[in-house]
Amino acid sequence: MYAIVRAGGRQEKVSVGDVLLIDKVSAQPGESIELKPLMLVDGADITVEADKLAGVKVAAEVVKAAKGPKITIMKYKNKTGYRKRQGHRQPLTQIKVTKIG
């Protein structure tokens, strides 16, 4: 059994026990969060209707806060001596899916 959930502006395919990185959520490590299911696949049964999915809950436990890879932003203008270097690391949250159903 697996589900497609909306997590942090993206859609992720999750099963029980999966560990994944999503955009930062305001929950502490050890707390439980609920993800919104968009599709549920259980063997040959596929559920996509909103009224049937209203009763389905996908629970996940927050494992830890994390950061994405470093991205370097360079700006340069020719013949003027203008150079600017900037870096960015996106804050993420690592979660583990505990229950689908």
UniProtKB/TrEMBL annotation:
SUPFAM superfamilies: L21p-like. GO terms for biological process: translation. Keywords: Ribonucleoprotein, Ribosomal protein, RNA-binding, rRNA-binding. InterPro entries: bL21-like (IPR028909), bL21-like_sf (IPR036164), Ribosomal_bL21 (IPR001787), Ribosomal_bL21_CS (IPR018258). Pfam families: Ribosomal_L21p (PF00829). One of its GO terms (molecular function) is structural constituent of ribosome. Signal peptide: none annotated. It comes from the Bacteria. This protein binds to 23S rRNA in the presence of protein L20. Belongs to the bacterial ribosomal protein bL21 family. This is Large ribosomal subunit protein bL21. It comes from Dermacoccus nishinomiyaensis.
